[in-house]
Amino acid sequence: MEENSQAASKDTEVIAPVWRDWHTVGSDFRRFDGLPQAQQDAIMRGETVASEVMINDDMLWGSVFRYEPSMKPEALAAVFHDYDGQYRFVPGMPETRVVNRTGKLHRVFHRINPITFLSHGAQTSWPAWLYNALCYSYQLDEEVFSTPTSDGPGYAIRWTIPLETQVLGARENGEIMFTRMGEGTLMSYNNATEPFGYKALKAIFPNSLLSRLYISLGNVACDYYKRTVEGFLDTAQAMTSEAIQTDIDRMLAQPGLE
């Protein structure tokens, strides 16, 4: 089902320059249909399932899946599409805001404290001055795409580090898909990252050692993605129907969406 929506999306859209790096790995992102049956069953029971971290094109690739039986794809996608409000559910991120927009494409400013990857409660337990002093900022280009299936409307929001803002080769490409499945929505979260300086480290350290270290970092990151998905769902479920409808109306007003 998801594979069909992905193929339709690739066939009907022209790949803009900003998404060329995304498509290096994005077309290989994990889909529900390719997961082991045990994982599919757990997802449909309402569990948050994180797949094994892998390396693809020098990028750490993590995947998280969750099924929400009571909300439609357009509702969940619209909440995520509120880029100014992403700080509400992304762990360790005290600020997100749109700094530029071209059609559907939004450039979003993020501030994050990397200690949150390891210390889950740092943002609320540390003194604000100390926590904020350790934050760093970066920008992502984010865009919503229509990914319908035979079961109904679907949406994907993709993000990538703009090529002109990459530092020492740092890369990030990700996507969260909201696919209609039965009465509810399948959420598929995929993110691929390459830390700055990784290629330089490959020239210094043995590949086996660096790969083990890289995978260990990836497992930490994948746990972070899992918390992001769960925090996002908690945020969406706590919103009023009126607030969600406002988000839906704003998202569907984007060029090319219906």
Order of helices and strands: HHHEEEHEEHHEEEEHHH
Helix percentage range = 25-40%
Oligomer: single chain
Question: Distance between termini?
Answer: 20 Å
Give me the number of helical elements. Answer: 9
Helix/sheet category: alpha+beta
Shape: globular
Taking all Cα atoms into account, the compactness measure Rg is 18 Å
Main sheet record: 9 strands, antiparallel
Poorly predicted ranges? 3-12
How many domains? The number is: 1
Strand content: 25-35%
Strand tally: 9
Mean pLDDT across the residues is 88
Structure description:
It is a single chain. The chain has 258 residues and is α+β, with helices and mostly antiparallel strands. It has one domain (2-82, 144-248). 36% of the residues lie in helices and 27% in strands. Strands 1, 2, 3, 4, 5, 6, 7, 8 and 9 form a 9-stranded antiparallel β-sheet that branches. Strand 6 and strand 7 form a beta hairpin. Helix 4 (73-81) packs across helix 9. The radius of gyration is 18 Å and the shape is globular. The chain starts with a helix and ends in a 6-residue tail after the last helix. Residues 3-12 have low confidence and may be disordered.
Structure at a glance:
The chain is an alpha+beta fold. It is built from nine helices and nine strands.
